[in-house]
Amino acid sequence: MWVPVVVAVLSGCESATIKAIREDFRSLFQTHKGAPDLASGIRQYENANYAEAARQLQSALDQGLAREDQVRAHKYLAFIHCVSGREQRCRDEFRAALKIDPSFELAASEAGHPIWGPAFRSVKGQR
Question: Are 72 and 88 in contact, with CB atoms under 8 Å apart?
Fold first, then answer.
């Protein structure tokens, strides 16, 4: 009942903050086409099938994801590039995640990783 009212009120606002809030609010109620590929890509990553994981993660991004899921996809792509020795591409993916969500942080277990932990900190420190 209150959802249409909130959407209508937020629709008239033009500030960047309100637009981001409106997008997040709408994403709570819509399914994004890339969600199945994101889930599959993460499973492939967890099974160390990095080439297939990267393909599916990129497909998920291309099809469309909620902002939070875009950040997750870029994070996993960064991990894949880092462990594959592609440090610049790893940093580029972290930059993409931080562009979407400047407050993005790795989990403590991820931040301590000897390969992508330092890459992430160097990119985060540039902001």
Answer: no
Which DSSP string do the residues of 54-71 spell out, in sequence order?
HHHHHHHHHH---HHHHH
Instruction: Kindly report the pTM of this predicted structure.
Output: 0.76
Question: What residues have CB less than 8 Å from 101, skipping those under 6 apart?
Answer: 67, 68, 71
Q: How many residues does the chain have?
A: 127
Q: Which 8-state DSSP code applies to residue 44?
A: H
Tell me the helices (H) and strands (E) count for the chain, helix number first: 8, 0
Residue tagged 């931040």 (tokens): 111
Closest CA to 84 of 40, 53, 111, 126: 53
| Residue-wise pLDDT tens digits, 14-42 | 566 666 666 666 555 556 899 999 999 99
Residue 1: is it exposed, middle or buried by C-beta count within 10 angstroms (0-12/13-18/19+)? exposed
Tokens of 62: 């291309």
| Cα dihedral 35→37→122→110 (10° resolution) | 90
**Dihedral class, residue 85 (left if φ above 0, else alpha if ψ from -120 to 50, else beta):** left
